[in-house]
Amino acid sequence: MGSAGGGACLALAALLLIASCASTASAAKYTVGDSSGWTTGADYTTWASDKKLKVGDSLVFNYAGGAHNVAEVSAADYASCSAANALSSDASGTSTVALKTAGKHYFICGVAGHCSSGMKLAVTVAAAATAAAPPPKASPTPETPDTTPDTTPTSPSTSSGGATTKTPATVLAPPAKQTESGATGLRATALAGLGVAGVVAAALIF
Ligand SMILES: [Cu+2]
User: Fold this and answer.
1) 182 lies in which domain range?
2) Could you name the domain of life of the organism this protein comes from (predicted)?
């Protein structure tokens, strides 16, 4: 009877501790062009040059709705300023684009003449730095050398190009304040739970 209560309390305390330790990796939002926004005459190559983007981050394009648009395009269409085969497009005036895959991403304004006037942005997105550690050497070659080599299982997306994955310095990532205070509250609760558990354990001993 008493021991059951103590066990439940300890389990609760453990759950609370786990909950308090779970922290989410902060995803950053980058305003393209900063205060200039998404417009002609800006230099987005320079803007992008010092941005350490990673999967999970977002780009925010601000512009007068209808005056411009944002189209994600292929490298070839980026080079030729063609939005005819856009992968996605938005003209709302505030286009938030979540960067879901690592590698190069290309954006242009599809309004005639704007891309060639500078409304083109190429960014390199690194794999999420805080993701779970990649499998060290999970090459599941089951040592059957005679059978036909079916679909060589090469590594999925070895990001092409010189995507030098430098340590992401977490440029603009203010930690969410509420999780901090919430965690503190949880920790306090957990400590209280541990205190109760200690009393229960002491009661059991004596
Ligand atoms: Cu435009």
Assistant:
1) 1-23+175-206
2) Eukaryota
Q: How many angstroms separate the Cα of 124 from the Cα of each of 59, 88, 100?
A: 12, 18, 12
Is the model's pTM score more than 0.85?
A: no
Residues 7 and 39 in one domain: no
Round to whole Å and give the CA distance between 58 and 60.
Answer: 6
In the reported structure, the alpha carbon of residue 116 is separated from the centroid of ligand 1 by a whole-number distance in angstroms of 10
The pLDDT confidence band at residue 146, using thresholds 50, 70 and 90, is low
Query: What does the pLDDT average to over 124-144?
Result: 64
Distance between Cα 112 and ligand 1 center (Å)? 8
Q: Are residues 128 and 179 in the same domain?
A: no
Looking at the structure of the chain, the number of domains it has is: 2
Name the strand (E) or helix (H) holding 31.
strand 29-31
Give residues whose Cβ lies within 5 Å of ion ligand 1: 68, 109, 111, 114, 119
Based on the domain organization, do 12 and 95 belong to the same domain?
no
Residue 73 — very low, low, confident or very high, per pLDDT cuts 50/70/90?
very high
Q: Report the separation in Å between the CA atom of 106 and the middle of ligand 1, taken as the mean of its atom positions.
A: 15
User: 118 C-alpha vs ligand 1 centroid, how far in Å?
Assistant: 9
